[in-house]
Amino acid sequence: MSVKKNWSDSTPLLPQHQSQPRSRSNSYFSYSSISLEMTSAISASATDRSVFLGIDVGTGSARAGVFDENGKLLGSSSSPIQIWKDGDCVEQSSTDIWHAISAAVKAACSLAEVSGEEVKGLGFAATCSLVAVDSDGSPVTVSWSGDSRRNIIVWMDHRAVEQAERINSCNSPVLQYCGGALSPEMQPPKLLWVKENLPESWSMVFRWMDLSDWLSYRATGDDTRSLCTTVCKWTYLGHAHMQQNNEKDSRDMEACGWDDDFWEEIGLGDLVEGHHAKIGRSVAFPGHPLGSGLTSTAAKARYSELGLVAGIPVGTSLIDAHAGGVGVLESVPSSDSQPKESDIEALCHRMVLVCGTSTCHMVVSQKKLFIPGVWGPYWSAMVPEQWLTEGGQSATGALLDHIIENHVASPHLANRAASQRISVFELLNKILEKTMFDLKRPFLASLTEDIHVFPDFHGNRSPIADPKAKGIICGLTLDTSEKQLALQYLATLQGIAYGTRHIVEHCNTQGHKIDTILACGGLAKNHLFIQEHADIIGCPIILPRESEPVLLGAAILGAVAARKYSSMHDAMKALNASGQVIHPSKDPKVKKYHDAKYRIFRELYEQQLSHRSLMAQALT
Question: How far is CA 247 from CA 240, 389, 595, in A?
Answer without folding.
Answer: 14, 20, 43
